[in-house]
Design goal:
Helix 6 packs antiparallel against helix 11. The protein starts with a helix and ends with a helix. Helices cover 82% and strands 0% of the residues. By secondary structure, the chain is an all-alpha fold.
């Protein structure tokens, strides 16, 4: 793999740490600014909303420019946002810093996925995308626990200072290691949005919403499942979540390789297995041994869809891959919000702390239906193009029809 992919992965690592790192520092942030836990939680939901907006709006604004330069300016925006968060004297300015950093999230992964795919041979595109996304999964495995530890030892601001430094290193790496790319030719904003007139692009986006909605629906309230149902001590939850993160790290690479071999078939298989894993987890959550196994499998299978989903969207929007890719990142975040909301509804309705797992399984089954239906349509649509007999001149077609009638009569 080209070394430039490492620089992109480092940028993804910093962005992932920005998104998730604050979760472990909520008590310190709330105490420092004198706000309630729920208000502090807006720093997470506000970030997610900004990612969804920026993934579409910012990507549309930059789609016509040289992609390497775009990545460099996005990293500058990322550095500014985290620097503002590190020095913010008030909660409001911290929120502004979070929003600024979040705006580059979707555009960075959207543009970066296109750049990564262009750096390798066509049969290795999903693998290249998975390597870039490995930075995001590594943030779950290593970054969040280390960021939380650093913030607890040296103050929550130190974590944002560390992320700022990571952003600077990633900026230098992208400048030095990512090859120069030509600006997309003859692109207009209307042309970029024209990709959304294709049904398969919307199938891909819906598939991303449902796929991430399924795994996040089961994962958002997993701490309650682990402590209230499985009987684990609260102190063990972070280590169990690291186990989940290890699974996502492995699944990201497995999913990338599988998508390169057979895109729709791999997505169908992975999502089917995920639905089974979530259902088994819900049925056996009272067993600690089964919970550990299910948690690892849930991480492995749950994020294995990410490279294939990104590649599928780009495949059906080849003339506007940047815009479609950014929209797909927005779809991931919409799926995150949908899964968390549905899981919360199930708990609020009194179905218990395993109910989000059942919700996740149900949403994942819906994703399987979508990918199967979407896989059939392109083949059916392509059949007329293989039979050019309809385009034959009339004077040639008539003798053929007459000969067929005579043969039938004989």
């Amino acid at each position: 793999m080209p070394i430039g992919l490492i620089a992109l992965a480092l940028g993804g690592f910093g962005i992932g740490l920005t998104e998730f790192g604050i979760v472990g520092l909520m008590p310190e942030v709330a105490a420092d600014f004198g706000v309630t836990e729920s208000v502090a939680g807006y720093l997470v939901s506000g970030y997610a909303l900004s990612v969804a907006v920026g993934a579409v709006a910012l990507t549309a604004a930059i789609a016509r420019f040289d992609r390497k330069k775009v990545l460099l300016w996005l990293m500058v925006l990322f550095i500014v946002g985290n620097l503002l968060s590190a020095v913010a004297p008030t909660y409001s300015l911290l929120m502004v810093g979070r929003v600024v950093a979040a705006l580059c999230h979707g555009a960075f992964f959207g543009v970066g996925a296109v750049v990564a795919a262009d750096m390798v041979a066509p049969n290795r595109r999903a693998g290249a995308i998975s390597l870039m996304f490995a930075g995001l999964t590594a943030a779950n495995v290593l970054g969040v626990p280390l960021g939380t530890f650093l913030g607890q030892q040296a103050g929550w601001r130190s974590t944002f200072w560390a992320i700022t430094v990571i952003g600077v290193v990633a900026l230098i790496g992208i400048k030095a290691l990512v090859p120069q790319t030509a600006a997309p030719s003859q692109l207009s904003l209307r042309g970029e949005f024209g990709a959304f007139r294709r049904g398969q692009v919307w199938v891909s986006i819906l598939l991303s919403v449902l796929s991430f909605g399924g795994v996040v629906g089961g994962f958002t309230y997993i701490a309650f499942t682990l402590t209230e149902v499985s009987g684990f001590a609260t102190s063990t939850v972070p280590w169990l979540l690291v186990l989940f993160g290890i699974g996502t790290f492995a699944g990201n690479f497995i999913g990338g390789k599988a998508a390169d071999k057979s895109l729709n078939a791999s997505l169908t298989a992975i999502l089917s297995v995920l639905a089974v894993v979530l259902a088994v987890f819900a049925l056996t959550a009272e067993s600690q041994v089964m919970t550990i196994i299910s948690l690892l499998l849930m991480g492995t299978v749950g994020l294995a869809t990410a490279p294939g989903l990104q590649l599928r969207t780009m495949k059906y929007a080849q003339d506007a891959p940047t815009m479609a890719s950014g929209a797909n990142i927005a779809a991931f975040n919409v799926g995150n919000a949908l899964g968390a909301w549905l899981g919360g509804l199930a708990i609020g309705a009194g179905y218990g702390f395993v109910s989000p797992l059942w919700v996740g399984a149900g949403v994942t089954v819906a994703a399987v239906v979508v990918v199967v239906a979407g896989s059939v349509k392109p083949r059916a649509a392509a059949q007329p193009a293989v039979a050019p007999v309809q385009d034959a001149p009339v004077e040639q077609a008539r003798p053929v029809a007459r000969e067929a009638q005579e043969a039938k009569a004989a």
